[in-house]
Each structure stands twice: as structure tokens, then as C-alpha cells.
Amino acid sequence: MISNNRYLSSQKWDLLLKALPYKLPSTIIGHSVLNQPIYAHRLGNGPIKVLLWSQMHGNESTTTRALLDLFAHLRTPSGARLVEGLTLMVIPQLNPDGSSAYTRINANKLDLNRDAIDLSQPESVALRKVFESFSPDFCFNLHGQRSIFAAGKAGKPATLSFLSPAANKQRSLSPARVKAMQIIALIHNNLQQYIPDQIGRYDDTFNPNCVGDYFTSLGVPTLLYEAGHNGLDYDRDFTKEMILKALIIALNAIEDESYLSHSAEAYDRIPENKKDYVDIIIKNVDVKTETGLFKNQDLAVLYKEEKLGESVFFRPVYHSFSNKIELLGHRVLNAEEILKVSKVDFVEGETIDIF
Asked: Dihedral sign, CA of 5, 144, 42, 8?
């Protein structure tokens, strides 16, 4: 299976911006390890300042695509109120090298979301300089998550997930953290009509090296967005629309302060993410291993995402098997009726030739 949408290099993003019927105000805030420019776009003139950044992990492109739609929304009558009440600083691709290579890490093979204190990477330094000079009132840390997450134990797929990062080891409810919780609770409430029971909440263990935790510890409410999975939408087109709605809801709530009517307790009621999904479960498979033949098994398969030219290839690889597997599958197949196979030989982590 191949997706043409999930791969979003800095070159492809540049072409998308050039194709817009309007010109975005742009500033180069720094350069990547491979000397690619890192761009930021300042929009609006309002008194409340919001900093948003995406593709800190280069293979998490769905939120960046949603930002393109957000730019269009801000030019509509309903979006005009936002640019009057808010000033947005948007960094669509913090990690342009990782975006082009379709890797989570940067060109020095480091995770930028574990570099908040050391500031060992030029991309981290660029973000920190913007944070300090722009002095935001709110931050949006935009990411994408794997298809393995359920919204609660054995729940529906987590199409979106959120986190209000902790500000300290005690995970105290600091004023900044409470504000982020209130906004996320409002988002959760408003999106139930579109993705009922498909919003998860991440574990809030404090990590001072994570950017969201660090910014929260400095007193700035920070919302971590995770673009997740829905059905067989591996292009994440539906998820992108939900991210866009979640961005608009949150920005409106900040502009009119409607989030203040929501509670931190409502945030805590959002189900925590659980790793309960695989991409495919194949039933009634005879599995041959070095220790013997296991008949009529459930075989769990995950997709490994790999860059293939200007696309992303989803390579099916073995995850596990059991006579009754305790996992959920986005797709459930029957080996005899659909795949026309009776035996599967595998090595753990190796590709399974099923399609």
C-alpha cells in the first residue's frame, strides 16, 4: 500500500505555498543541520500571541497539511475574527531534514523533542529563539501518532490525542497547565459529534527534555496535538480535517476565553491511550516456526512506513500470533477465504507477503 499524501518534504511544502493564491508573510528563523531554511509565518495583529510548530518529527506530516487549510480559513469571514484577536507565529516544518528523509529524527539522528534543555541542535535553537522573542501566551506542539493507539483500553481508534504536559515531577496543576487542560476538554466536547469516543489522552509523566514540558514549566500553556488513525484512512485525510477543526476550536476558545467554562476534571475524564491496535489481523492461519506448526492462529501484522520516492510505502511486517490474539485490528481478514493461503513462515520483524 502506498500513500502519496503522507510524504511532505520541505521541497513539496515549498511548492504548496507557492501555489497559494496569496502570499504568506515569511521569515527564516534558522537553518537545519543540512542548512535548509526553517520558515515561520506571522499572521494577525491581536493582543494574544500563539506559537504553533509542526513536523518537529519529520515523518509526522498530517498536522502540517492541516496548517495549510488553517491559512485558508484565516482568510474567511469566520477566520477574520481570529486574526483580529490573535497573533499567530506558525512554524510548519521545524525539522526540514527529517521531513525530506521521512524520519522522526533530524539529520544528526536526534529527536528534537528530547532537546529542550541541551539545545544541541540548530532546529532546537531556532525554536527557542522564536519562543523567547515572540513571548507567546499559548503554544501548540503538533505531532502525529502511530495507528496502534486506542482511546482507552480496547476502545475505538484514537483519531486524535492530546496532552497538557506536566510542569514538574509532581505533575502539579499549575495555572498554565490548567489552561491547556481546559482548552483540550473543550475540544474533546466539541468533536464528539464527529469522532465519538475516538479522542485519547497521553500519559503525563514529566520529562524536562520534552519541549512541551519545558515550556509549561516556564508558565506558558502548551497543547500537544497528535494526529492519529481512523478506519482505513492511511492517507490521514479525515484525520487532517479533524486536526483542522481542533485547531479552529482551540483558537476561537483562546480568543473569546470560552475555555474558562471547562474544567481540568473534564480533561482527566478523557480516556488514556492504550497500545491495543495492529493494522491487520489474519484469522485461521497455520504458522510454522522453528519450534513447530501452530494451526488456526490469529496473526497480527503492523505496517512499517518507508519512504519510496515521493511517497510512503506501508510494508506489512509480523507482530505476533496466538490462538486468540488480545489485540484489535483496523482490518480483520480470513486467511482461507480471502488470502487463499494455509501456511505462513516468518521471522520476527520480517516482511510478510500477504498482498
From this structure: negative
pTM beyond 0.85, yes or no: yes
Give me the residue label for grid cell 520483524.
349
| pLDDT tens digits, one per residue of 238-282 | 999 999 999 999 999 999 999 999 999 999 999 999 999 999 999
Q: At what angle do helices 237-256 and 77-85 cross, to 10 degrees?
A: 50
Query: At the top level of CATH, which class does the domain 2-275 belong to?
Result: alpha beta
**Predicted confidence (pLDDT) per residue in 142-161, tens digit:** 999 999 999 999 999 999 99
Report the distance separating Cα 130 and Cα 51, nearest Å: 9
Distance, CA of 189 to CA of 196 (rounded, Å): 9
Radius of gyration, alpha carbons of the chain: 21
- Residue 153: strand pairing partners: none
CB atoms within 10 A of CB 295: 12
User: What do you get for the CA distance between the two ends of the chain, in Å?
Assistant: 9
Domain with CATH 3.40.630.10 in the chain: 2-275
Cα–Cα distance, 236 to 225 (Å, whole number): 14
Using the Cα atoms of residue 141, residue 147, residue 151 and residue 157 in order, give the sign of their dihedral: positive
**How far is Cα 304 from Cα 157, in angstroms, rounded to an integer?**
18
CA atoms within 13 A on the CB side of 109: 0
Give the cell for residue 232.
482505513
Report which of 67, 123, 114, 71 is spatially closest to residue 95, judged by C-alpha positions.
123
pLDDT of the residue at 286: 86
- What number of other Cβ atoms are within 10 A of residue 26's Cβ? 12
Residue 246 CB burial class (10 angstroms; 0-12, 13-18, ≥19): buried
The CA–CA distances, whole Å, from 208 to 177, 187, 203, 214 equal 14, 26, 14, 5
C-alpha distance from residue 163 to each of 77, 179, 216, 278 (Å): 30, 12, 11, 23
